[in-house]
Specification:
Blueprint (H helix, E strand, L loop, with lengths): L1 H26 L9 E6 L14 E6 L4 E6 L5 E4 L5 E11 L1 H8 L7 E12 L10 E2 L1 E2 L5 E7 L3 E2 L5 E2 L4 E6 L5 E2 L3 E6 L22 E9 L8 E2 L4 E5 L24 E2 L18 E4 L15 E6 L2 H6 L2 E3 L15 E6 L3 E6 L31 E4 L1 E5 L2 E4 L5 H4 E4 L6
Parallel strand pairs: 1-7, 17-18
Antiparallel strand pairs: 1-4, 2-3, 2-5, 5-6, 6-8, 9-12, 9-24, 10-11, 12-17, 13-16, 14-15, 14-20, 15-19, 15-22, 20-23, 21-22, 24-27, 25-26
């Protein structure tokens, strides 16, 4: 009889759990939700003294429970949020100014429409507590003709279930209908000293969430020589960490998803002590990497990646400074902490790659560069992130570039396949 009673209690508990987790927003009692509160979006008087022409898409992601709410603001950039479950939230905002609104703000007679973005992380909503949020100041974002198309960073498993990360690559793409010279183009990784799931340093003179500079840990000038090099409309260039036939040669990883022997460029370190093979792919020129190593590998948990357009003398003259002291480890060499400080006006594309969607506090870029993030949500999965195709013009793919990687990228199960 006792066992039967225990079983009955167990089954009732299971049924209650199923009911509670399935009803969520539609059927849960009001006591299960946080108190309603308002979001207010503003930009240069719009949303305050004058209404917006276009409404804004507002996405709230509950990082605790891993589900998403989607809302639309009113013409004053306001939105009352109701029936939200407690947890830590990330807020993404996307919208667009009309050409007439841009002209009203700037005074330019020939103004063009412009995208606006917003991003707020670490919003904690609790039951029984009033929630308030300061007005969110939106930031204009600009698209570029040269963009990251695909990023493969999290590595692969070997046939014996070991780990392998020498097969990383990044592809860049001419997202326009005209040829573009790339002699002044750099590819770089931003600082990543926060640790797994932890935010990095707040640099002196910067405002959290609204950085005016990026802080490079390493960078390469893609074209090493002086001869002009162009990239045609709709053309892809693949940059390999190691331009090896990874899945074709047993000395690498036959279980890798990629063969990078046909890569357009390689991050090969021209050092006599480098034990790695210098493959036929053209070598990029190492432009900045104080904590030098033989392989330029991104962390498998992700890292911010940038493309920078700057003349050689401009890049050389960007300041170099050490990470704030509270993030320094006395057991590391001094060079490990040095970063190159680059104004965001030189950044033509940025993709925030993070470990998974629950650690948005590790984002490195302001919304003007990337209002979201991309992730394969794991390590050694043999997967990449790749942009969505927005449209095709005369057979040329035009990729989506809203400066919100959450919206622009999807996971590609077969890297280098498109």
């Amino acid at each position: 009889m006792k066992n039967k009673t225990r079983n009955s209690i167990f089954y009732v508990a299971i049924l209650f759990w199923i009911f509670a987790t399935s009803c969520r927003e539609d059927n849960a009692p009001d006591s299960y939700f946080v108190e309603p509160f308002e979001i207010h979006l503003t930009y240069e008087g719009l949303g305050e003294s004058r209404a917006f022409t276009n409404l804004f898409d507002v996405t709230l992601t509950n990082n605790t429970e891993q589900f998403t709410y989607k809302f639309t603001s009113d013409e004053w950039g306001k939105l009352m949020l109701e029936k939200l479950m407690p947890g830590e939230y990330t807020i993404n905002i996307m919208g667009e100014l009309t050409a007439e609104e841009v002209a009203w703000i700037t005074g330019e007679a020939d103004a063009k429409k412009a995208p606006l973005a917003g991003f707020v992380s670490g919003v904690n909503l609790k039951l029984g507590a009033a929630s308030t949020l300061d007005p969110i100041k939106l930031i204009p974002s600009t698209s570029s003709s040269i963009i990251f198309k695909e990023l493969y960073y999290a590595g692969s498993r070997t046939l014996s279930n070991g780990t392998y990360r020498n097969d990383g690559f990044f592809s860049i793409y001419n997202n326009s209908l005209a040829p573009i010279e790339i002699n002044d183009l750099y590819i770089g990784m931003v600082e990543n000293f926060g640790g797994i799931g932890q935010a990095g340093p707040l640099w002196p003179g910067e405002e959290l969430g609204n950085y005016q500079h990026i802080y490079l840990k390493s960078a390469w000038k893609i074209v090493a020589g002086e001869e002009p090099v162009g990239i045609g409309p709709g053309q892809t260039l693949t940059i390999a960490v190691m331009a090896a036939p990874h899945n074709k040669d047993a000395q690498y990883n036959l279980n890798s998803p990629v063969d990078l022997s046909a890569a357009d460029y390689e991050a090969y370190s021209n050092d006599p002590r480098n034990p790695n093979i210098d493959f036929p792919a053209p070598n990029m020129r190492l432009a900045f990497w104080p904590d030098y190593a033989f392989l330029w590998r991104m962390g498998v948990f992700g890292q911010g990646m940038v493309l920078i357009a700057a003349a050689a003398d401009e890049f050389e003259n960007f300041d170099v400074l050490a990470v704030p002291e509270s993030f320094q480890d006395p057991f590391e060499n001094e060079e490990y902490w040095l970063c190159k400080k680059v104004p965001i006006s030189y950044v033509i594309d940025a993709v925030d790659l993070i470990q998974n969607s629950t650690v948005t506090n590790t984002k490195r870029f302001p919304p003007s560069l990337d209002a979201g993030f991309a992730t394969v949500a794991g390590t050694y999965l043999s997967k990449s992130v790749i942009r969505k195709v927005k449209e095709r013009v005369g057979g040329i793919a035009i990729y989506q570039d809203t400066n919100n990687s959450t919206e622009d990228f999807v996971i590609n199960d077969t890297p280098l396949s498109e």
